[in-house]
Amino acid sequence: MSAPEASSAAVPTLTTNNTLRNAFGGVLSFFILLLIGVLAFSIRLFSVIKYESVIHEFDPYFNYRVTQFLTKNGIYEFWNWFDDRTWYPLGRVIGGTVYPGLTLTAGTIWWLLNSLNIPLSVETVCVFTAPIFSAFASWATYLLTKEVKGAGAGLTAAVLLAMVPSYISRSVAGSYDNEAVAIFALIFTFYLYIKTLNTGSLFYATLNSIAYFYMVCSWGGYTFIINLIPMHVLLCIVTGRYSSRLYIAYAPLVVLGTLLAALVPVVGFNAVMTSEHFASFLVFIIIHVVALVYYIKGILSPKMFKVAVTLVVSVGLAVCCAVIAVLIALVASSPTKGWSGRSLSLLDPTYASKYIPIIASVSEHQPPTWPSYFMDINVLAFLVPAGIIACFLPLSDASSFVVLYIVTSVYFSGVMVRLMLVLAPAACITSGIALSQAFDVFTRSIKFQLPGVSSKTEVDAGETSSATKEAQNDAVKTEKAEETSKDRPSRKSKKKEREHVEKPSTKTKAEKKRLLALPLEASVISLLLLVFLGAFYVVHCVWAAAEAYSAPSIVLTSHSHDGLHVFDDFREAYAWLRHNTDVDDKVASWWDYGYQTTAMANRTVIVDNNTWNNTHIATVGTAMSSPEKAAWEIFHSLDVKYVLVVFGGLVGYPSDDINKFLWMVRIGGGVFPHIKEPDYLRDGQYRIDSQATPTMLNCLMYKLSYYRFVETDGKGFDRVRRTEIGKKYFKLTHFEEVFTTHHWMVRIYKLKPQKNRIRGKTKKSKSKTSSKSSGTRKKNPWL
Amino acid sequence: MEGPIRAREALALTLLSLLFFLSRSSALHDLLISNAERRIDLSSHIVKVYLTLKVENAGSSPASEVVLAFPPSQVDHLATVEALATKGKRKKTTFVRLEVKPTELPDAPNDTKYFTIYLANPLNSGESITLEVLYMLTHSLEPFPAEIGQSESQLVYYRDSALVLSPYHIKQQTTFIKTPSTKVESFARVEPTNRAGTEIKYGPYEDRTPYSFSPILVHFENNSPFAVVEELVREVEISHWGNLQVTEQYKLVHAGARHKGVFSRVDYQSRPSFNGVSSFRYLLARLPPRVHSVYYRDEIGNISSSHLRTDSRKSELEIEPRYPLFGGWKATFVVGYGLPLQDFLFESSEDRRYLNFTFGCPLIETVVDKLTFKVVLPEGSKDPSAVVPFPVDQHLETKYSYLDIVGRTVVVLEKKNVVPGHNSHFQVYYTFKPIFMLAEPLMLASAFFLFFIACIAYLHIDLSIRK
């Protein structure tokens, strides 16, 4: 009740304390940010501590190999690199088909360190690129959220992002993939966009284009930016929030950004040709029309303006219809309607499973399940709605952007589990806003309820944030006012003005405080609950980082009663291939292992994880699904010398080739119709036991996986499928086993050399001899 | 530049050898070997030959050198020749190490190569001395058949002479050949020849003239690991902050009979003693005591199969390559470890220090075809010199590491055909002022200082054009 008096008494002390408090808060938030960076970096080191400093999974191995090439041969060689070690006999133009952002980043870091004579290996740099950029990403989140709702929300959002499991899953040490740097680029581009929107500065607009360029370099997900920002601009225009700041934020981005994007070889003319970019051009036209309208409105009288509008609208509509008709005709003439397959499957979630099995076969392109939301963003899922509400109180340009961002990313994450990654920053930002606002309200009401404290503990964390936030909001308002008079104050005078603005507002603030006050007990309990919620989030994130997302997947471990057991079979096989086969030998395997084979074994592969040529993959799939002789002929025609299969039946490794086999059949059958999926299924069920179809039991994949498997335990019990295998004793006629790893997880077979052609024999008898085993050869008098 | 020097050297050499020839030609013929006993140990892939010679001076002038002769086919594989002179009798026997050097003799029949043993005291006429000679041969067991399957055991040829090749008259000689097992396919007979258990005895032969030669061939089973390191680069980095970092890069190969056809894991796992008998899985490395932070990896990451046992006297590292090595299979790996500096670095005089370290390969029973030993001295050290007990190629390099500006001097020692017999100590001397240790910390501190100064300056300067 004595609050008004207290606050009015506190006015002089407040003004003298203000500069000090600002400085103190600045230093404090700087150190908090530093700690957040350290947290983001160190929480991702579980993989190095629990396993080793090694590149993870599949795609990172390709990126690592490209980086090695870059550091060894330089940037010009890199652009011109034609890789003949992959997609044999086609090869691949690496320089023109990769997003070079990640490799150039790591290459630059490596070059910088080496020029300082710090001899870190390329591998080490690659392993730690992702954690470093996670720290950058959390700082970028701070900046973005600070622009939206003040420093307090910024810090909260940054700390949430530093350990959000969804992002950790893609950026643990060793996970050297495009997303590692792209998320930073994404957030930073958004930050610069909001910053431009708030300040209307052309400097930030240029920076924004450059950040967008970096994003285009880094990840195909840049299309999200170039669609989201136009959407926001459109939203602003529709809701009547058009301003010159919006124009400055958007127009340079489209022009400069598109020009810069076209410089990236992999994008090139796609930046103006494909449908993914059309929305931005359309909005670009619209914003100019709107700008023109506002300009004309400014110089004409209201009456004249009305006349002009009717005139322009009637003419404009006709022109627009013509243009749109031409556009539609152009787009419709291309088979995919100008959209790439992955983008189309985003718009129509059933598209991939219908038309492109190769996209559908990748597990990260599947829609996520509900538990995976809880796993990946945890309590943020509950805080997001609160954050959205907070964004509407009051709605500014920036907060409307956040709302739009979260809504679209929720949709995209629902289509593809991989895009959960785009949702994570949005969820962190909104949750950060929600948490910060909640703390704000609760601490303020506690302070209000405790009269003795209110006058003295002004330097409370929540209070500081709210004060600075409000100060900034006010500052933004004043800046807006100043913008119209085209007067930009310098940094120092801006600060002063902020202080001036704050003084008169304190009294009204006190009034507001009184209205928003909650009961003391409720506030304390709610605060405690929020702290518990945060603690739960931290515990979950640490658990996820340590247990769920740190496995490098090329080395597996299992805990048994006699301690830790390590399955290092993949590298065993790759090392064997590297050292004991000829350097130009071709190795055929399913495309999952292509990148690893080229990077670790340094051998030429037929197909790899860059699934650009469906026919080629289908050929390998067909060979794997064919009987031995037909498969031998396919492989021989591809000059293959070794065939590599992954088999988990002995130790129970579930993601082996037998479990992926149906995709091979489907993809193979999609191109070569003689491979029919029903032939491999018994009553619609996929099985490898004695009930399996003869086609299944005679296909190459079955034979290579289970060759002499029965001799291990006498029964041939497959621990993945939990059944005894159907065909136990058989011989290979066209292949011979040359290497099997310690736990049988990788088996390598060599194609037997072609038999000598026998003169005077008919074709029929020749095929007969070749299908016989080598044991019967002695009977032939010609040999 | 090189031409004249070479010519001069050659001239000097010929002059010297002429002089030697004049002085020695009599000595060569005056010495005679009253008894020669040779024991050839074929149990591993490194052939060790223990030769006991009783040399008598039958001439009139005292002799100070004894010459050993080797056929040219053996000289290429000869890794080391050592000689000891025995003194005293029976229990009081003491051994004196003698200097051995390769020499050229002008009238060598059939390209015979020579090594000269320099006696400590000249052998007077009528006196006799017993010499113990040990020499090791590498790559001297030729696998036959050259390609074997997984379950076959490895058979090898060993070629030598039943008689000791010598420029001297040998009154009586015997040769014993020890094979690793009793499985001997065949052996050449030069009567009298006996075989008992794992030993084949040639001789005794009486009164053989100089350069007597009688080729023999032994074909026997040898399944010991034919572990050959084709190339080994050992790098020792000295840090005066108290650590010695050793990095060893291996290129390992199984040099036995080549593996042919299939490798079946099920056979290998079910009966490892029978299937894959010629292969090997483990290697043992003897490391210095007090070794720490040992790692074992290759170019694609850590290799998890290794064990380290340490006690106060030695450390043993048992390493297992990623896959068992069959004939002709290769593997590369890196072993690295840290050692406390005070165990290996000593001060010889003011600012002059020396590193005392073992040469050779830490893996036991392995041959190294080419060993490169790099000693990285700390930045700012001067006048490096290496003292190695056997001839090696030396040169200097510069290496840049952790914020170096002038670079570190690297003493590079290269030697071919290294056997465990070369695991002896060598020294690298250099001058180093301890003040250089502070260079890098000071550099870092000043860099940070300047950075903060710059920050402060930036925050206090108003760079805006309009006030």
The secondary-structure class of chain A comes to: mainly alpha
Text of the CATH class of the largest domain in chain B: Mainly Beta
Helical element count of chain B? Answer: 4
Strand coverage percent of chain A: 5-15%
Mean pLDDT of chain A: 82
* Cross-sheet strand order for the largest sheet of chain A: 6-5-7-11-10
What is the general shape of chain B? globular
**At CATH's second level, what is the architecture of the domain at 565-751 in chain A?**
3-Layer(aba) Sandwich
Largest sheet of chain A: 5 strands, mixed
Biggest interface, residues from each chain: A-B, 34 and 32 residues
**Helix content range of chain A:** 55-70%
Structural class based on helices, strands and sheet pairing of chain B: mainly beta
Helix count from the secondary structure assignment of chain A? 36
Number of strands of chain A: 11
Oligomer: heterodimer
Q: Provide the CATH top-level class of the domain at 565-751 in chain A.
A: Alpha Beta
Give the name of the CATH superfamily of the largest domain in chain B.
tricorn interacting facor f3 domain
How many individual domains of chain B?
2
How is the CATH topology of the domain at 565-751 in chain A named? Rossmann fold
User: What is the straight-line distance between the termini of chain A?
Assistant: 111 Å
Backbone CA Rg of chain B: 28 Å
Q: Care to give the gist of this entry?
A:
The complex is a heterodimer of chains A (783) and B (467). Chain A is mainly α. Among the domains of chain A are: 187-338, no CATH class; 565-751, Rossmann fold, CATH 3.40.50.12610.
Jot down its keywords:
heterodimer; A: 783 residues; mainly alpha; Rossmann fold; five-stranded mixed sheet; two-stranded antiparallel ribbon; 36 helices; 11 strands; 5% strand; disordered C terminus; B: 467 residues; mainly beta; Immunoglobulin-like; 2 domains; ten-stranded mixed sheet; eight-stranded mixed sheet; 31 strands; globular; disordered N terminus; Dolichyl-diphosphooligosaccharide--protein glycosyltransferase subunit 1 (chain B); signal (chain B); transmembrane helix (chain B); transmembrane (chain B); Ribophorin_I (chain B)
